[in-house]
Amino acid sequence: MAKSKQSSLWRWPKLLLQSKTGTVGFLIVFVVVFVAVFADSLAPHNPAANNLGDMLKPPAWLDGGTSAYLLGTDNLGRDILSRIILGTRVSLLVGIFSVVVAGIIGILIGILAGYYGGLIDNILMRIVDSFLAIPSILFILVVLAVFEPSIMVLIIVIGFTNWVTYARVVRGEVLSIKEREFVKASKSIGTRNGIIMLKHIFPNIISSFIVISTLSVATTIILEASLSFLGLGIQPPEISWGGMLTDGRNYLATNWWLVTFPGIAITVTVLGIIFLGDWLRDVLDPRTQGRK
Fold first, then answer.
1. Is the pTM of this model over 0.70?
2. Which of 131, 128, 215, 208 has its CA nearest to residue 176?
3. pLDDT-derived band of residue 285, with 50, 70 and 90 as boundaries?
């Protein structure tokens, strides 16, 4: 038994090393998470400290740049690198926890609809269809216009608009799983529906949930940056990559580094998450195993 667990544990690193995209994605995600966790220690300067004497300093390798500000400074003399490092934490918080909110709602509704079927399925799926008919970005903008934007509000509103995907995928999985012999056997011996859904249905849909969640984190990070760019996301003094793009858009023609480096941070992070999600899909979905 111990050997079996040990071999199963080592299976994942071996599979990861066999995939170039998976390895690259894992390394990027690992670095991003590490930076987010230790952001306060890694930031070389106070990201909120204004220093008008050093405003709009170019990156260190350009004329006029200095090694004190490797990526330059913004229009208030704040260190770009330090702000990118602190912005990592906000992006991951919103991306991960909004997916958790969406996953909880979507899995619950998907399991109930798929398992019980009939009237319950019809009612829940009509609710899903109603949410699909509402433009998610419009709904988010309306909510953020009513409530004061904050990290918690963003997490809740983004999660509440993204649960539909989980519900539809989970429902389809449950419709198939509930017809299998081990589920029918549990019903025949009088096992309660709640126990069946928890012990037999849920473990068999977790792989699909992981794959969808990984890709959803990437899209949520982009959505958060877009909302912050529009001024409806994270508000100052909180630091976000989208907010940095907003601060630097008026200086794009003359001081390109104000928007370029936050944009690169968003792009690299999203690509890393997508690469890792692509690898997880290939590993967890037997229909795609062996492609890489």
1. yes
2. 208
3. low
